[in-house]
Design brief:
Number of helices: 2
Strand content: 35-45%
Helix content: under 10%
Strand order of the largest sheet: 1-2-3-4
Shape: globular
Number of strands: 24
Structural class: mainly beta
Largest sheet: 4 strands, antiparallel
Order of helices and strands: HEEEHEEEEEEEEEEEEEEEEEEEEE
Length: 285
């Protein structure tokens, strides 16, 4: 009965607040990434306006009817931003990636750039910290490579080639040696970083580029693709156990967020993990 209640107790979304990313000097305000810090106290927003804006989540939520929220911190960048990732242990440490192939590490408390890492030869689509190792983060790029970084080093500590452009990277939730990445070759690749020459699994089924991957549990992950499908994969059997359809892929990279029971993507469509039909379909664009 708990499962049935979980999937039938909601009938609509209620907007708590809204944030404006762009400003009067920006020709475009497309948002590429939204990330919460480890305590869900601050939310960082980045996009093509070449700025990272950090907002106090509690202030935003409790300011009913007020939309012109001011960031508590704003960092100006030199290129359009594609991805953000907060360090899972160090609250004010934030990594970013951009369209010029650069990965940066920021101190969001002071608003200063800690390091600038320029090794990728093309646009970096994704940067992510390891949940189990706060001193390790990864980036994936259009130059068909994944690179690993340590905060104490000015260059990558490891790099390996990939079969296609890398759209997304994600560490295993409890083992920093395992990493999944989605590629323009339509495949989700699951690798052991100690031996990247042979994948632990090559998960095939998508018809277009894999834009996002997210772990639901240590043995399951969800992938999103520009083919307008989401797929749930069992990493033990290496099979797709469920296909989710229902959203129209109008903007290619439409976002993907998961909990153990729900998957959210697009505009926003919410799927329960045990069903293929959406339980919510709200246009909030």
């Amino acid at each position: 009965m708990d499962g049935v209640h979980r999937f039938t107790c909601y009938s609509s979304f209620r907007e708590l607040s809204s944030l404006v990313y762009g400003d009067q000097t920006s020709n475009s305000c497309i948002v590429s990434s939204i990330e919460f810090d480890k305590d869900n106290a601050f939310v960082a927003v980045a996009g093509v306006a070449k700025k990272i804006k950090v907002f106090n989540y509690s202030t935003v939520i409790n300011s009913t009817g007020f939309t012109n929220h001011f960031p508590v911190q704003e960092m100006v960048c030199t290129a359009k931003l594609s991805s953000l990732s907060y360090n899972p242990y160090f609250k004010s440490t934030l990594a970013s990636s951009d369209y010029e192939g650069c990965v940066c590490v920021w101190d969001t408390h002071t608003g200063t750039k800690v390091s600038r890492l320029q090794e990728h030869e093309k646009r970096v689509w994704s940067v992510v910290y390891s949940p189990s190792d706060p001193n390790l983060f990864a980036s994936g790029s259009d130059d068909c490579s994944v690179k690993l970084w340590r905060p104490t080093q000015s260059h990558s500590c490891f790099s390996f080639p990939t079969p296609g452009n890398v759209c997304t990277v994600k560490f295993h939730p409890s083992n920093h040696y395992f990493l999944a990445y989605g590629s323009a070759d339509h495949v989700v690749h699951y690798v052991d970083l100690r031996n990247t020459k042979e994948s632990l699994a090559s998960l095939r089924g998508h018809k277009k580029a894999v834009s996002y991957v997210q772990f639901i549990s240590p043995t399951e992950l969800v992938s999103a693709s520009t083919d307008s499908e989401l797929r749930l994969w069992d990493l033990n059997s290496k099979f797709c156990t469920r296909v989710y359809r229902g959203h129209v892929n109008e903007r290619n990279f439409v976002g993907l967020s998961v909990t153990p029971h729900y998957i959210s993507c697009g505009k926003t469509i919410v799927f329960p993990t045990s069903k293929s039909e959406s339980v919510q379909d709200n246009d909030i664009m």
